[in-house]
Amino acid sequence: MGASAGGTWHAMRAVGLDFVASAPQVYRLEALVGAPREAVFRALADASRWHEWFPGVEWARYGGEGAERPGVGTLRESQVAGARYDETMLVWDAPERWGYRIDRATQPVARAQVELHELESVGPATRVRWVIATDPDRAIEYMSDGTPFPKFLQKLHEDAMRRLERLLAAQP
């Protein structure tokens, strides 16, 4: 996929969805979004708009074969907080599950990583579960400001979901 943004690429192990059950570290985060599940799924699947609602995402796009009709196997590129990521879509089950594995990154974040979003209708709202299954390069217990890493991830997820909720509410 694309060239690095000034960094060295770090390849990750190719894993499948079953990695969620066997990964050395798994984070499971939940937030409620005041929007229908179908709208939330469409927003997750629209790579071009992630920068509008997910903190730190500078851009994201699908590439390679299948980019015009993305689904399982489609490649996705993104830049998040200055780091580049090349990913492969592993699941695209509208409107219930959407997820990918990271194939390589310009930051050595993990030896393998899968991110999965599971959507559940809760009345007119949607419960979004973000599952991060990782074989980390190094254990991250605290952020530089002393915040425990799981608490940082939960706040990131909640912030992203609030921003997504506002974006969806503003659409006609």
Highlighted features:
40% strand, 20% helix, 8-stranded antiparallel sheet, 172 residues, alpha+beta, 3 helices, 8 strands, Alpha-D-Glucose-1,6-Bisphosphate, Chain A, domain 4
The CATH class is identified as Alpha Beta
Order of helices and strands: EHEHEEEEEEH
Biggest beta-sheet profile: 8 strands, antiparallel
The number of domains: 1
Report the total helices: 3
Low-confidence stretches: none
Helix/strand/pairing category: alpha+beta
Q: What gyration radius follows from the Cα positions, in whole Å?
A: 15 Å
Instruction: Note the beta-strand portion.
Output: 35-45%
* The CATH fourth-level homologous superfamily: START domain
- Based on the coordinates given, report the CATH architecture: 2-Layer Sandwich
What is the β-strand count?
8
Helix content: 10-25%
Q: Distance between the terminal alpha carbons, to the nearest Å?
A: 35 Å
Q: Which fold name fills CATH's third level, the topology? A: Alpha-D-Glucose-1,6-Bisphosphate, Chain A, domain 4
Look at the structure and give the mean pLDDT.
93
Principal-axis shape equals globular
Task: Briefly characterize the structure.
This protein has helices spanning 19-22, 37-45, 149-170; strands at 10-11, 25-33, 57-63, 75-80, 83-93, 97-105, 110-122, 125-136. The chain has 172 residues and is of the alpha+beta class.
Q: How would you sum up this structure, described in words?
A:
With 172 residues, this protein is an alpha+beta fold. The protein has one domain: 2-Layer Sandwich (Alpha-D-Glucose-1,6-Bisphosphate, Chain A, domain 4), CATH 3.30.530.20. It has three helices and eight strands. Strands 1, 2, 3, 4, 5, 6, 7 and 8 form an eight-stranded antiparallel sheet that branches. A hairpin with a 4-residue loop joins strand 6 and strand 7. It is globular, with a radius of gyration of 15 Å.
